[in-house]
Amino acid sequence: MELAEVLPMDCIIPSPLFSEARSFIYTLKSNGRKLHIFTRTIDRVTTLSESIDSSHRLFADNIWPGTYVLADFLDSNPSICRSRTVLELGAGCSLPSLVSSIHGAIRTVATDYPDDTIIGNIEDVVKTNGIENVAILPYAWGTNPSLLLDAISDISDDSSTTNKQQDWRQQKYDVILLAEVLWKDTYPFHCDLLFTVQCCLSSTGIVLITIVHRPTATHSVEQDMEFLSRAKEQYGLQCRYLGLNHDYKDVFEDDRDKHCEVHLYVLFAHEDACILGSIDQWWRTTYSDERVTG
Questions:
Q1: CATH number where 244 lies
Q2: Which end of the chain has the least Cβ crowding within 10 Å, N or C?
Q3: How many alpha carbons fall within 13 Å on the CB side of residue 35?
Q4: Is residue 159 part of a domain?
């Protein structure tokens, strides 16, 4: 697939935030399985037109605290993904996708910005860890989601009483994962991300999102929270706060000794969504950096 097929002509691949690749071993507390998680640096700027705007960075060349916390939560509540379809948007190193697959997702689809380096890294992570039922797709938020829906169009819901010859677009995702995808540079794309969520989320599905507030002179905590209010006001998604985790350190050199405050939320369209009952007392498990070794 050509890049021009999946993103606007003026999109760019920005410069790297970090100067070297990162690599970690993540251990699932539930079964002791170790996963080798790594990233590559994005070492170039690529544009499909003469217009280059490097103000919006992807930040896909590190493994962020919110990624670990979401993976921990899925590992501690394995029934959330079991026998369900899972979509991760802005997957980066795709750790939550791997955990969902290990815990029995029917199919997991890991997506990120359509850059060869980013998508190639996800493919390598999945292959290195021997995970077979994860599909990797390039996808820019807000663009046509048919590629994402096609990835699960062959999965039938045996419990459904509806006509199984229904339009394939009725088949949507049970769980959508958003691991620390909100920050200053993604603020202009909240509506694009919510459009994709709305198009891909089943009426009985849930969205799990981790947020780390990183306020700057030009970006506030309130702007992060606008994503949740827009989800409710524009798309009717209810929000429930699951809790706070501060067991993982930040990735920036100046903050390496600082433990991040990672907030976890669940979004859903209906209170009777069956998956909500799969989360046992929401945030009952204590997490630790002991899961991760460099």
A1: 3.40.50.150
A2: C
A3: 30
A4: no
Q: Are strands 134-138 and 107-112 parallel, antiparallel or unpaired?
A: parallel
- pLDDT tens digits for 228-264? 999 999 999 999 999 899 889 887 656 566 788 999 9
| HSE-CB for 57 with a 13 A CA cutoff | 14
Q: What is the mean pLDDT of the chain?
A: 80
Residue 144: both structure tokens together: 């046509």
The residue behind tokens 């003026």 is 10
What is residue 291's predicted lDDT score, i.e. its pLDDT? 47
Per DSSP, which regions of the chain are E strands?
12-13, 23-27, 34-38, 46-47, 85-88, 107-112, 134-138, 173-179, 201-211, 238-245, 262-268, 292-293
At residue 130, what is the residue type? G
Count of helix runs (H) and strand runs (E) in the chain: 6, 12
Rounded distance between C-alpha atoms, residue 174 and residue 268, angstroms: 10
Q: What is the pLDDT of residue 141?
A: 96
Encoding tokens for residue 260?
A: 């991040």
The predicted pLDDT at position 48 comes to: 29
* Structural domain count of the chain: 1
